[in-house]
User: Fold Probable membrane transporter protein from Streptomyces hazeniae.
Amino acid sequence: MRTLIVLALAGLGAQLVDGSLGMAYGVTSTTLLLAAGTNPAAASATVHLAEIGTTLASGLAHWRFRNVDWRLVAKVGVPGAVGAFAGATVLSGLSTQIAKPVMAVILIVLGLYVLTRFTLAGLPTGNLGKPLRNRFLSPLGLVAGFVDATGGGGWGPVANSTILASGRLEPRKVIGSISTSEFVVTVAASAGFLVGLGTEGVNLGWAAALLVGGAVAAPFAAWLVRHVPPRVLGSGVGGLIIVTNVRTLLDGDLVTLGGTATTAVYAALFAVWAAALTYAVRAHRRTRAREIEVARSRVAEGAEEHEQQRAVPSA
Assistant:
């Protein structure tokens, strides 16, 4: 019973992060199951089974708060489902020892771009409103879906970071749309695991506990992403991408560090992330203060002009 309560709380926390930043539910939950001794394929299958419910709840919540661009959902979700099904069916025989660190390095680069771009310059507006083309979204969805199924998480980090970096859609719409499309990806991954594994190793009780916690957090996360300033949200997403994928590198065989060095790396990362978030919050407040001042000046000018017109005698 204690294990189920812990899993439910973990699901709640993971979904709160995932629904507001667009990533980390799968990574967080899979890490917990692996720490409990579950094999990678069964852990990913259990998490994806839980995500059928959590992604549905998250998608509905984001739709209610108008965070969803349905064109993006369709363009990235369908190829994502194909990639997830393929990744799930081959996971038992696929070695990800090389693929995971390579993907982690790519995501760290994207995370650094997102973190610095949003922290220092705010929301990229040069491409805002420009269409996201199928030739860009289809391969992205395919790769993100495959990584998600084989790694027990990755749909959000791959899809969100890449689309955010393009600067063509505001962050809340990116996060809401990617979170909504994840439902289709999760169903496809679960079907692939059913074909490849059956129900072997899948703990239905653990999946249910993760689902309950995630479903409770979904509405609040969707509300949060609508009200957090884009600049702050972008800094949060970028830092999360970096920390998550540095962890992937440090947990693998590609980079070997001692316990003290690993702790120092994490401490430095979190310090930089906290500084970036602090800077983003202060920059947003300064920008907001200027916008309010400009608005007040325009109102005052309009009132003065109106008074002058009233003072002029009519002919």
Notes: The chain has a mean pLDDT of 77.
